[in-house]
Design a protein that fits this description.
Length: 145
């Protein structure tokens, strides 16, 4: 998705978008994130091109923020959509000043807070998830004995 040509002749979109101290020059969507988008976000509008265009737009408009103030990998898009992403430096790619550029790897989309109220407190949500999985394992363990 980088270096996309604009409609006007001989002009290009910015090479990178500054975000949380990173200079995002590329977006990578994992297969898990693609599946979660189709399941939880927008079953009709999927595909890597659509998701990347959506994320670039939100990055440029500064509509992505950390879920918690010091959070490094969980983000809110439009104060509703919860996304997990990590950042890696692009090898041998720098901006004009020689600073490293980054790629944003979208690990998964957890869902929309407006549709799943449990996403309002991720720490409690993950605690509940671990507990329910542990109880399921314990229950299945009893059946096998």
């Amino acid at each position: 998705m980088k270096d996309k040509i604009m409609n006007r002749w001989s002009t290009y979109e910015p090479f990178h978008v500054p975000f949380q101290g990173y200079k995002v020059a590329d977006i990578v969507i994992t297969s898990h994130a693609l599946a979660r988008w189709a399941e939880r976000i927008d079953p009709g509008e999927g595909g890597i091109e659509h998701i990347c265009a959506f994320l670039w737009d939100r990055l440029k408009l500064d509509k992505i923020s950390p879920y918690y103030p010091n959070e490094k990998d969980v983000f809110l898009i439009d104060d509703d959509l919860v996304m997990v992403a990590e950042f890696l430096e692009l090898k041998e790619e720098t901006d004009i000043a020689g600073n490293p550029l980054h790629k944003m790897i979208v690990v998964t989309f957890l869902g929309r807070i407006s549709q799943d109220i449990q996403l309002r407190d991720l720490k409690a949500y993950y605690s509940w998830l671990r507990h329910s999985r542990r109880m399921t394992l314990v229950k299945h363990g009893r059946k096998h004995k």
